[in-house]
Design a protein that fits this description.
Length: 425
């Protein structure tokens, strides 16, 4: 060793530091690698990804060969620095202290911190090429790694830890998926992001939140005169209409408007035949989550259903279109009676019917009314005031000023919603 020039020893030290850096950056990049991106590359047949996936399937052995190589190299580098220090400063405590400080600084900067920062920043670019080196190294050092892991497993057994049970894939929950979508940035288009977020909300939204209220359901009374029935059917804005007998709670079926108008072209309508072509109504229990109801519509091949409470009384109507609007956004094909619920005024305020659903108001008018209580604007106002208000009464809910315009039969019929005041700088 004394005959080897210092320059050669310094060159060997640099090589050892680079090898140590390789193991450090490989370890960090392997652990920081996106497992789902890796699966995608494996499915595409990427050879480096396949090798990397096999290494990550045996994490204990992978870490064993990386740490084995890293520690051996660091120990060799420390011994080499000791020799260099003795050659430069002579044998003594000063030389040993200087060598220890120098190698500690060099390993921290060049072989630990910097490589691991790079490995965490560019895991895919480093881990996949590194797998070509780590895989044969693992095969060569397998007996040593296996022997070391014997002691590791024994120590874990004494600590009553079983990493095998938790070493599998990390499954993402709904909140984790939501966070991934929100942080996707420009990788996911804004419209796609909105649809995905709406899908996550389907389990938290029930049919009560999106149903057409009872007093807005379009239906015909089969006991009405024939002329009235023909007029109602010919002016209907829907392809399917509910049919009841005497009262709305007594729904007897659903008819397809086109089929009825076809036989009523002569000016007469056969009520007996009308009863024969009725389809049985489909009922939905109140509180059913939208995602579950979407599946029920698909399984039962239905497009609309009546929401009923625990007493069997009709609360409202839900269609497949209502659920789809919660996912992809609002469609423009609405009946005039529905589009007239919101009328914008010259001062920027909105005239809104009290029976409007709060979710619709928030979505269409960009409001922030609370959704954890009543479902309609009328219910929200009555709950807030704990009394039946008179026309001209004003209140403030969620920074929105609301003025009662018209009331009738203990129900708020029309209100005016003012936009929130701009925040002062």
């Amino acid at each position: 060793m004394d005959e080897i020039p210092v320059s050669v020893l310094l060159g060997a030290l640099v090589v050892l530091l680079l090898l140590s850096a390789f193991f450090s950056t490989s370890e960090t990049s392997m652990m920081a690698l996106n497992r789902y991106r890796l699966k995608r590359l494996v499915q595409q047949g990427h050879r480096g990804a396949i090798i990397t996936a096999k290494l990550l399937a045996k994490t204990d052995k992978l870490l064993g060969v990386i740490l084995l190589g890293n520690n051996l190299i660091n120990a060799a580098a420390a011994a080499l620095v000791t020799v260099i220090s003795f050659r430069l400063f002579g044998q003594g405590e000063f030389a040993l202290t200087m060598g220890t400080l120098a190698i500690t600084f060099a390993i921290l900067v060049f072989s630990e911190v910097t490589p691991k920062v790079l490995g965490a920043a560019f895991p895919e670019k480093i881990a996949l090429p590194a797998s070509y080196v780590l895989s044969p190294l693992l095969k060569l050092a397998y007996p040593i790694v296996w022997f070391i892991n014997l002691f590791v497993r024994a120590l874990l057994w004494l600590m009553r830890l079983k990493p095998e049970q938790s070493a599998g894939e990390h499954h993402l929950g709904m909140e984790e998926l939501r966070t991934m979508v929100l942080e996707a940035g420009h990788f996911v288009p804004q419209k796609h992001k909105s649809i995905l977020l709406n899908l996550f909300e389907l389990e938290n939204i029930t049919v009560d939140d999106v149903m057409i209220p009872r007093n807005h359901i379009e239906a015909i009374n089969i006991e009405a005169p024939t002329s009235v029935l023909i007029e109602q059917l010919s002016t209907s804005h829907h392809t399917r209409v509910l049919v009841y007998q005497n009262e709305l709670d007594n729904i007897i079926g659903i008819i397809h408007v086109r089929r009825v108008l076809h036989q009523a072209q002569g000016g007469e309508l056969d009520v007996t035949l009308l009863r024969e072509i009725l389809r049985e109504p489909y009922f939905i229990p109140a509180g059913t989550p939208l995602f579950s109801q979407l599946q029920h519509f698909q399984e039962n091949q239905e497009r609309m259903g009546l929401v009923v409470d625990e007493y069997g009384e009709i609360m409202g109507l839900v269609t497949l279109e209502d659920i789809l609007e919660e996912i992809v956004g609002e469609f423009t094909t609405h009946a005039p009676s529905q589009t007239g619920l919101y009328r914008k005024q010259e001062d920027g305020s909105w005239m809104v019917e009290g029976s409007s659903m709060l979710r619709d108001l928030n979505r269409k008018l960009q409001l922030k009314l609370p959704l954890d209580g009543p479902k309609t604007l009328n219910g929200l106002i009555l709950e807030h005031l704990e009394d039946i208000p008179e026309a001209g009464t004003s209140l403030k809910i969620a920074d929105h000023t609301i003025e009662i315009v018209q009331t009738h039969d203990r129900v708020v019929k029309v209100v005016r919603i003012f936009p929130p005041a701009p925040e002062k700088q």
